[in-house]
Amino acid sequence: MSILLLALIYFLIGSGVKYVDAAYDENTFSRRYALYLAILLGFIAGMTMIWDQPTLIIFLSLIIGVTVTGKLDIIPFQVLTAIAVLMPSCYYRASIPLSWNNGYLIMLLSFGAAIDEIGNDLADASVLKNKLRVFFLYRGYLKVVIGIIAVLHYLHWSYAVAFMSFDIGYLLVTRLSERRVAQMEYASRLLVR
Prior knowledge:
Layout: H1 3-25, H2 31-51, H3 53-68, H4 75-91, H5 100-124, H6 130-137, H7 140-151, H8 157-192
Helix pairs in contact: 1-2, 1-8, 2-3, 2-4, 3-5, 5-6, 5-7, 7-8
């Protein structure tokens, strides 16, 4: 798969996941569209996991990490996850082509995803301070882990780039959501006057 297509797919999934999250957490986007988007993202993720084994490893790891930390807490995320996991399972007839080495990568990346989720919650609650807070606000742990894995050639460097595009999409929609929150707060203050 070309790096450009891979980066685009990861970007779409990252921005879509944040759209769904913001629709439910901040009410900044349509919840109705969020469910439809989650279904589409599930199909895109599932197809990409079928076509591309390293993406299968990365996405399964993310799914395990967010499941373990209880982040699949809304129906659109559960639907997205179910579709994304069922598609390769049905395609491969429940015999997903992974080796023991892939299992170690999945465990390492799942652990990284879980650490990022826990660290992000602590950063949001202002338990973490200064540089450590910023590191986890931007979910830096998994980025470092994927970077190291790419440097050690367990994953091609294009997957580190693709994962960064996932995060760029996620962060761009985060900023858009924050702007919408600020606009809604400003509008509500005008109405109170």
